[in-house]
Amino acid sequence: MSLPSIAPYALPRAHELPASRPDWSPDPARAVLLVHDMQRYFLAPFSRTEEPVSQVIENIATLTARARELGVPVVYTAQPGVQPPADRGLLDDFWGRGPAAAYAKDPDVVAIVDELTPAAGDEVLTKWRYSAFQRSPLEQMLADRGRDQLVITGIYAHIGCMVTAVDAFMRDVQPFLVADAVADFSRDHHEQALTWTAQRCGVVLATTDALRALDPAAPAAVREAPA
Question: Can you spell out the DSSP letters for 19-88?
């Protein structure tokens, strides 16, 4: 078992996003920005020069830069290269040994991609399960900083990103899934994650809207690819 090969697909545009049930909006005084599993191993199945990943990396880089300027905490997740069976648990039954074999040949395979290298002051959490909250200090980190919103970017949208969103919701943390700053196995999987999140646990929004909400005084310096 391994990751599937992933064909390029166009990211959903702002006018294609599902309507979210709540009217929440990201607040720089309440939000934390999550960069979920943007490791070389998980990005390997994508073309780095085509959508979705080419645009997703650009959008996440814009969001992280703006967040740091505004004092919004930036948190990364990353799976370790070595995962003993007791730690990996049932993931083996779905995904095999994960990055272990690739890590044995090249330890850098679990590094965050160069374009999104964590900056001084960012947090990098070890990722053990689909949700970024499981077996991590993320919930306590939010509480310690008086934050109750989580802006979610990264991969894969219908697995870890969506599950983190619903886990946040169940902890009374408002989740925001940034539709053009996440990528997935296919456009269908991507849309599945957006629709379910919008209907059941959070707000789905575009990068431009997330930037505008976090910093209303500044123009959203991000390019949306042509429709």
Answer: PPSS-----TTTEEEEEE--BHHHHTTS-TTSTTHHHHHHHHHHHHHHHHHHT--EEEEE--S---HHHH
